[in-house]
Design the sequence.
């Protein structure tokens, strides 16, 4: 056994052997292994059947949640997009004077005073 | 099998466990081959793995729980949980640490669920109420003292020292099994050893 105050990164064979003897199970390992293997099929059944049950139980709520999410997305999308379309129409609508639409579609570049006047008109 | 897995860290009586039971008698196949067969539905291959790691799993569970009967239940839970999760095992890594992590978690879960007693009660037949002349009785008394000393250590500390000094895992592997930093493993092993070595030294002194 080594000095109890010293740090050692290697296993201590004497302490290990003493602990192993102290923790040695009473019955043999084959009896324990037989006990584990007696549960083999049941463990595999438990692992597969509940998964299908869980999937089945979530099917209807999943469909309902997806439908609600779709409806909410549609309503929110419509609420967001509708004002934006109206504002573009308003911007393109002719006001007093030549208007923004005439300015954008003109063949020749506009005079700076016309652009300024158009901006003032928009305000 | 284990000697290869451990990277030369363990030696002597405190080193890795040799295969037992069916593993010793029949199968020298490595763990990965057995896992592959078990995944393909080979019940016997999983049985060899169980026999190969039974002793180790039971000791580790005992270290976590401090009670041999609860430990066997936990080790069984661990093996069956490993069977269910076998497809998740990465065959590039050693099987032992992966399995021991599952066993240690199963033991910890069991302790939480049952809120098991703090210390293992000593078996009067082993302690005997006083020194007896035969070597078996003396040995039994030491075993009982060691179990008591282990049960008085914090759970993580006693599990770390059993994984290191009894099972021969490296600090890095124990860190993976217990889910704690490697430095913490070193510290836990150090403190556990200090306590247990003192007990062993006292016992030797008395035995003279």
Sequence:
């Amino acid at each position: 056994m080594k000095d109890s105050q010293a740090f050692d990164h290697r296993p201590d064979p004497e302490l290990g052997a003493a602990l192993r003897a102290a923790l040695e199970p009473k019955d043999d390992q084959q009896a324990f292994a037989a006990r584990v293997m007696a549960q083999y099929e049941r463990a595999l059944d438990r692992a597969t059947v509940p998964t299908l049950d869980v999937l089945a139980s979530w099917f209807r709520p999943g469909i309902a949640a997806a439908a609600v999410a779709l409806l909410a997305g549609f309503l929110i999308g419509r609420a967001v997009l509708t004002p934006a379309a109206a504002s573009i129409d308003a911007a393109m609508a002719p006001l007093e004077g030549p208007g923004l639409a005439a300015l954008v579609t003109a063949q020749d570049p506009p005079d700076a005073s016309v652009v300024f006047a158009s901006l003032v008109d928009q305000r | 099998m284990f000697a290869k897995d451990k990277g030369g860290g363990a030696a002597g009586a405190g080193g890795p466990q040799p295969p037992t039971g069916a593993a010793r008698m029949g199968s020298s196949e490595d763990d990965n081959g057995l896992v592959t067969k078990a995944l393909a539905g080979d019940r016997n291959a999983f049985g060899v793995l169980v026999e190969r790691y039974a002793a180790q799993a039971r000791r580790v569970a005992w270290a976590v729980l401090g009670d041999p009967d609860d430990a066997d239940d936990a080790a069984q839970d661990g093996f069956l949980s490993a069977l269910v999760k076998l497809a998740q095992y990465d065959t590039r890594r050693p099987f032992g640490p992966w399995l021991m992590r599952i066993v240690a978690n199963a033991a910890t879960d069991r302790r939480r669920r049952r809120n098991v007693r703090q210390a293992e009660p000593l078996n009067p037949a082993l302690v005997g109420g006083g020194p007896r002349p035969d070597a078996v009785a003396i040995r039994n008394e030491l075993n009982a003292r060691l179990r008591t000393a282990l049960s008085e250590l914090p759970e993580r500390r006693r599990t770390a020292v059993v994984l290191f000094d009894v099972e021969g895992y490296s600090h890095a592997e124990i860190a993976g099994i217990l889910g704690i930093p490697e430095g913490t493993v070193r510290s836990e092993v150090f403190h556990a050893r200090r306590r247990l070595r003192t007990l062993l030294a006292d016992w030797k002194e008395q035995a003279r």
User: Anything to note?
Assistant: The mean pLDDT of chain A is 75. The interface with chain B takes residues 1-2, 4-5, 7, 9-26, 28-30, 32-33, 35-37, 39-40, 43-44, 46-47 of chain A (CB under 8 Å). Residues 93-123 of chain A form one domain. Chain A is about 75% helix and 0% strand.
